[in-house]
Specification:
Length: 162
């Protein structure tokens, strides 16, 4: 199973479109978004995904009701409040926006994969669990729009600049 990993898209519609196209051409089966979608109108573009999207809210997602409603309308997936735990192919995954408790979670052994955003900086750490920050899908701050793609069974991650 291939999953797409993205964060901090911040309403950059052109980049979101390119990233959706990339995920579709890569045949990912689910996209995990670590927050900061920002506005409900991004759902129209995420709606072109050929897979579901599971995300969490970030600090810039002020229109939470609108975001949830838009994602439901376009039948994209779910957005959760602060964090979300899920299991994909027997791999325990947690998605969050803030890097709070990353060290504790990574050393706990409870999760196989820990995904976070917020910093707009790519971060990959192999610890008891694999820690991933895909950078910023928007490209804001760093000037590079990046996403991650990985196979669940191998825990290998590739960061791709879009």
């Amino acid at each position: 199973m291939k999953i797409g990993i993205i964060s901090d898209t911040h309403d950059n519609l052109g980049k979101i479109k390119q990233e959706v196209d990339f995920f579709n051409s890569s045949k990912v089966e689910v996209v995990l978004h670590a927050g900061d979608f920002v506005s409900p109108f991004t759902a129209r573009i995420f709606g072109d995904l050929r897979c579901s999207l599971i995300g969490v809210f970030g600090n810039n997602d002020g229109e939470k009701f609108g975001l949830r409603s838009a994602f439901e309308q376009f039948k994209i997936g779910e957005i959760y409040e602060r964090h979300h735990e899920l299991t994909l192919e027997k791999r325990r995954i947690i998605i969050m926006h803030y890097p709070t408790f990353i060290d504790i979670l990574a050393e706990s052994g409870k999760y196989d994969v820990i995904i976070y955003g917020h910093t707009h900086k790519v971060d990959i750490q192999k610890r008891k669990g694999l820690v991933i920050n895909p950078g910023a899908g928007s490209g804001y701050l760093s000037g590079k729009a990046t996403v991650g793609i990985r196979a669940v069974d191998t825990l290998e991650i590739e960061i791709v600049e879009i």
